[in-house]
Design goal:
Arc Repressor Mutant, subunit A, mainly alpha, Rna Polymerase Sigma Factor, Chain: A, single chain
Length: 205
């Protein structure tokens, strides 16, 4: 068995077991592969794109891999010698094709997949400031709906920081952004969700 093939299997196993460091390493390990797969698929489909488009689709691919308790990663079976890299490349291509099929190939727009975040401690602390009760089911629903308004980059940040429990510095390294940009993304994401919650629930600020 190829050494890298074996290492990838071990990395995947640790990731599926909930190892946060392994999840971080998996993103870092396959980041370039996903970028290349996204770019190649767009080029084959003759769709114009820029760096922002690539980043958004790149982040959307990893969101698909990690959402619903890593459902897409758990579907990997390694049949016919399929490597982890090949499986992730397949998911990346399917993700791009799905977006183009649903939104049309003349313009790059992005599907807002719901990210199942069960615990958002900082958001809950903010809700207390304007008298909300985060335990209520209706407010949980509003938060999930608010998540759909975030960009793929913002949702990837929320996934890594809140769901995976990575520090701001760790998220900055994974997303290849400065720590200042990461704090900006965090602020904007929280403000968008707060705005959705307060406007739809008619909460007085």
């Amino acid at each position: 068995m190829n050494r890298f093939y074996k290492e990838d299997l071990e990395l995947l196993a640790r990731c599926l077991a909930g190892n946060k460091k392994a999840s971080e390493n998996l993103v870092r390990r396959f980041s370039n592969l996903v970028y290349q797969s996204v770019q190649y698929t767009l080029m084959v489909k003759h769709v114009s794109f820029n760096r922002h488009d690539l980043e958004d689709l790149h982040n959307t691919v990893f969101l698909k891999l990690f959402e619903q308790d890593r459902r897409k990663l758990r579907q990997y079976q390694g049949k016919r010698g399929c490597s982890v890299a090949t499986w992730i490349k397949t998911i990346a291509v399917r993700t791009v094709l799905d977006h183009l099929r649903k939104k049309g190939v003349d313009a790059i727009t992005f599907q807002k997949d719901r990210v199942p975040l069960e615990k958002l401690p900082e958001l809950k602390a903010d809700w207390i400031e304007f008298g909300a009760e985060p335990e209520k089911m209706e407010q949980n629903y509003l938060v999930q709906a608010g998540m759909k308004r975030l960009s793929p980059r913002e949702r990837l940040f929320m996934k890594l920081h809140f769901d995976q429990g990575l520090s701001m510095a760790e998220v900055a390294e994974i997303m290849q952004l400065s720590i200042g940009n990461i704090y900006t993304i965090k602020y904007r994401a929280i403000q968008k969700i707060k705005s959705h919650v307060t406007s739809d629930a008619n909460i007085d600020i």
